[in-house]
Design a protein that fits this description.
With 278 residues, the protein is an alpha/beta fold. The chain has 14 helices and nine strands. It has helices at 15-19, 21-31, 56-61, 63-68, 71-78, 89-94, 106-112, 118-136, 152-159, 196-201, 206-219, 233-236, 238-249, 259-277, and strands at 4-12, 36-41, 98-104, 142-143, 165-166, 178-179, 182-183, 223-228, 254-256. Helix 9 links the parallel strand 4 and strand 5 (165-166).
Length: 278
């Protein structure tokens, strides 16, 4: 029987995400699932996402408002809170989950990364690593690019940090990025499906989202990685999330693991295949 390896990635983008972390941690604990969390570092500037909304009705319909609430619009104007030092993040580690780095200054990263040069990107990742270590006592061993933003310069810089893996793309198979004749050395574990929040914003119902995920899981050849945010799926789509986790955890076709465990399995398999080919 074919077994699909399933990983759950949870991105901590904002202070609001840190405040509601217990909700997703409790759900994962209920199913005995270890998730992979990525926390951004630096100032929470998510309020900037709302400044282009001049029509109040459009603003209130925006997914981010549903996710963070009106207070989030003003929080960044009044204070400069760092995401990594806000409450509850340490509990991710304490409760047996994996924690990696989700870049530095999430808003700037996802909006400007493609036009930044190597020096700026190196400085950003270095700063993120330093803030992460200062907050949690160890260097991050994995990375996920905010907003799935990438560039050639980013991939070049990323290789120099020696992360065990990174999750910067969308796709259905693990891979090493290739550009021309060059292959980059950081293993990529891509996200296979859009988040519930993204699909809701496209007008999909909970039933449609559930069926879409089931089809994706059932047709996956080897692995299936999906992602969420603590302030959306576990709160706004809690019923849907529980249904999906029940489906995955009750079926022997699926093996749930962290992204770190998946990376180790893939590298172990690759080494065995290389040895066999000698």
């Amino acid at each position: 029987m074919k077994v699909t390896r399933v990983c759950i990635r949870i991105d901590i983008d904002t202070v609001r995400d840190t405040e509601v972390l217990p909700a997703v941690l409790d759900i994962l604990d209920t199913f005995g699932i270890a998730g992979t969390f990525f926390v951004t570092t630096g100032t929470d500037a998510s309020f900037k996402n709302y400044r282009n909304y001049r029509n109040p009705l459009k603003l209130l319909r925006n997914r981010a408002i549903r996710q963070h609430g009106i207070r989030q619009m003003f929080r960044g104007l009044l204070s400069h809170r760092h995401v990594q030092t806000s409450g509850n993040v340490a509990s991710v580690i304490e409760r047996g989950h994996e924690l990696g780095l989700h870049g530095y200054h999430h808003y700037n990263w996802m909006n400007t990364l493609p036009v930044q040069d190597r020096d700026v990107i190196t400085a950003w990742i270095s700063k993120g690593c330093d803030l992460f270590e200062e907050a949690y006592g160890f260097r991050p061993r994995s990375f996920a690019s905010p907003g799935f933003a990438t560039s050639t310069a980013f991939l070049e810089v990323l290789d120099g940090f020696g992360f065990e893996y990174s999750s910067d793309f969308r796709g259905k198979e693990a891979f090493y990025p290739v550009e021309g004749s060059r292959q980059f050395s950081t293993l990529q574990l891509p996200v296979a499906e859009e988040s519930f929040g993204e699909l809701v914003s496209q007008g999909m119902s909970e039933r449609e989202i559930y069926e879409r995920y089931r089809r994706g899981l059932d047709s996956a050849e080897d692995l299936f990685i999906f992602y969420m945010h603590p302030s959306f799926e576990p709160l706004i789509n809690k019923h849907l999330l529980i249904m999906l986790l029940e489906y995955i955890s009750s079926d022997s076709r699926f093996e749930i693991m962290t992204l770190s465990q998946l990376a180790k399995n893939i590298k172990r398999r690759d080494r065995a295949e290389d040895t066999a080919g000698i």
